[in-house]
Design a protein that fits this description.
The protein is α/β, with parallel strands linked by helices and 530 residues long. The chain has 17 helices and 18 strands. α16 (475-484) links the parallel β16 (462-464) and β17 (498-501). The longest helix is centred in the first third of the chain and has 53 residues, at 47-99. It starts with a helix and ends with a strand. Residues 57-84 form a coiled coil. Keywords: Coiled coil. This is F-box domain-containing protein.
């Protein structure tokens, strides 16, 4: 046998299982140097070499055929192994699927999980972009298409279908029937259930095919955000008597609305209405039972309109407790009321949130000048501008315990002094949340307690300085201020026990660092981050 033939191995098979043994005992020898040399030229091989090459050709032909056969057999064996591997993997997957704990969950647990998968009122009433509850590629529609059990649980869970958001600009005209059908399913799957509804449309809906279906569900509307043209609101007024369950009404965007609208009586019979948040252009034209409201908001409001609205909820018989206003575009006139008129009396108000932009600066201060809130407990003020800030004048006998303040102290040097004067009136204030830009040494020093002066904020126990920046204030000064508030100068003073900061203080002085460590170990609760 020639050298080439010696390396042609036969096919070995296992006597037990007939599997082919493919690994050769020896490897094929590489091409010889003489062959490589001949291939690089046109010189013919010698006579002896020709005889040897003829033998190699014959042997190699048989070797190629044999190897091809072995390759086919190996490929067949590999394919068989792959098939077996795939079957085994499928068995494993099926077993894990069938043994998954979710298959043993009771309907009550599934129902609770499903409720957290869907969008409810708090998830979509302020959401942008708008949520579309009719879209079948979103929960709860997708949940009801997984299995028979899931479908039964999903369909029988009224809460999944009782929060509905309709975005009409996204619906095409030829889908009106489909839209009506899917809305009908939602209403059918939430029988006798209060509805939380958001309706958004840039065109009048009174002629839309879905309008009658909305009318049929009005008696179940509990929370409603409706951003539609005034024509639609007027169309609903004929059915005002059905809104007996309505507790929350939000109208943020009214296309085409102006300050010269005809009265809107759609909600004047809503006897359960407590919370109102309405576009100021529409708010003054609403006919309501104002005295029953407990929460009133009008963000983006003109200040002049705000006082007109507050007059409707004033008096000892008014239920209003929470007020929220965002002032822009126009200021309250210096004398919005007659000089002989007393301030608007709001005896039950315990919370006021007010904000102003640059175009309406001083509006917050003027608002407080014209209201009387003897039981006010919490204030949230947002000065969303870099201009002069005028803080409201607070009576010394106030009962305010919680103050949140957003402002820019860096823009005007006198703003810090005004802020100090403002918070100095907070004799009952126990929580101060100060999100201010440009806090300087003057404010930090004034917050510190000293034995030889009258200190401010005697009842302060919680101080929140997150989202604040400092102007030339070393962190050691903050530590000294905190340390002073961990000691009583007078018996009636409270100790600061909780501090909120964005990040840990940077203290290079070992003595100050040790002082800070002692404060934390002695009971000061310091929390970092949002």
């Amino acid at each position: 046998m020639t050298a080439a033939a010696e390396h042609l191995l036969p096919t070995f098979e296992c006597a037990t299982c007939d599997h082919i043994f493919l690994r050769p005992e020896t490897a094929q020898k590489p091409v010889s140097a003489r062959v490589k040399e001949l291939l690089k030229s046109n010189v013919p091989p010698l006579h002896e070499e020709r005889l040897e090459l003829a033998g190699i050709a014959a042997q190699s032909s048989r070797a190629v055929a044999d190897l091809e056969q072995r390759i086919v057999q190996a490929q067949q064996m590999l394919d068989a192994l792959v098939r077996e591997r795939d079957i085994a993997a499928e068995h494993l997957k099926n077993a894990k699927t069938l043994l998954h704990p979710i298959r043993t969950l009771s309907d009550d647990i599934l129902r609770e999980i499903f409720v957290h998968c869907g969008k409810e009122w708090d998830d979509f009433y302020l959401a942008h972009p708008l949520h579309d509850s009719i879209k079948t590629t979103l929960p709860p529609w997708t949940i009801s298409q997984v299995s028979r059990q899931w479908r039964c649980v999903a369909i029988s869970t009224s809460r999944l279908w009782s929060s509905i958001s309709l975005d009409f600009p996204s619906y095409t005209a030829n889908h009106a029937v489909s839209l009506s059908f899917k809305l009908g399913l939602c209403l059918q799957r939430a029988p006798k259930c209060d509805l939380a509804l958001r309706i958004h449309s840039t065109t009048d809906l009174s002629g839309h095919p879905i309008f009658p279906m909305l009318l049929m569900s009005m008696s179940r509307w509990k929370r409603l955000r409706i951003d539609v043209p005034c024509e639609t609101l007027h169309s609903l007024s004929a059915y005002a008597g059905f809104l007996v369950s309505l507790t929350t009404l939000i109208i943020k965007d009214t296309p085409g609305a102006t300050e010269h609208l005809s009265p809107i009586s759609t909600f004047h019979l809503a006897s359960s209405l407590k919370t109102l948040d309405v576009d100021p252009r529409v708010l003054v034209h609403l006919h309501l039972t104002w005295k029953q409201l407990t929460h009133l908001s009008s963000w983006g409001a003109h200040s002049r309109r705000s006082l007109e609205i507050l007059k409707k909820v004033q008096g000892v018989d008014a239920s209003i407790k929470h007020l929220s206003f965002k002032f822009s575009n126009s200021k309250i006139p210096p004398f919005p009321l007659n000089e002989s008129d007393p301030p608007v009396l709001l005896p039950n108000v315990v919370y006021i949130a007010a904000g102003e932009t640059a175009s309406a600066s001083t509006s917050i201060a003027r608002l407080f000048m014209n209201i009387n809130t003897p039981n006010l407990d919490q204030i949230f003020l947002d000065y969303d501008h870099s201009g002069p800030v005028e803080f409201p004048a607070i009576p010394l006998d106030n009962r305010i315990t919680y103050l949140t303040l957003y402002c820019n102290l860096a823009a005007q040097t006198r703003t810090t002094k005004r802020l100090i004067d403002f918070i100095s009136a907070g004799q009952s204030l126990d929580t101060l949340v100060l999100h201010a830009r440009g806090i300087g040494k003057a404010l930090i020093s004034k917050l510190a307690r000293e034995s030889n002066r009258k200190n401010i904020l005697p009842c302060l126990t919680i101080l929140d300085l997150r989202q604040s920046t400092y102007d030339g204030v070393a962190h050691s000064l903050i530590v000294n201020m905190i340390a002073s508030r961990r000691k009583r100068q007078k018996e009636d003073e409270s100790l600061l026990w909780q501090l909120h900061l964005d990040s840990p203080l940077v203290l290079d002085d070992p003595q100050v660092a040790a002082q800070w460590k002692n404060l934390c170990e002695e009971g000061l609760d310091v929390e970092y981050g949002s």
